[in-house]
Amino acid sequence: MTNRPNGTLYVGVTSDLVRRVWEHREGLAAGFTKTYGLKCLVYFEEHETILGAIQREKNMKHWSRAWKVQLILKGNPGWVDLYGTIV
pTM score, two decimals? Predict the structure, then answer.
């Protein structure tokens, strides 16, 4: 999640992406995303198991910002909000 192209980034994990992104967009998810107004889904991955998803999240949180930005740019060079593609 982000607030604008090249803006603040948030990495998280959920078992219900549509619901969770909607919560962020509506400001219902208290914490980091609400504080920084992160309402735009610019990247997501699907995993076969929740354990795999949690491990990927933990790994990504240790990545540099540059690596995260490169991952976004590889799949979404225009930083387009992907929420409409998952609903």
Answer: 0.93
Of 71, 70, 2, 68, nearest to 32 by C-alpha is: 2
Question: Which of 57, 33, 31, 34 has its CA nearest to residue 44?
Answer: 57
Name the helix (H) or strand (E) containing 40: none
Tokens of 34: 């609400």
Residue 29 has pLDDT above 90, yes or no: no
Residues 63, 21, 74, 68, Cα dihedral to 10°: -10
Quick one: tokens of 4? 């604008």
- SS3 label, residue 49: coil
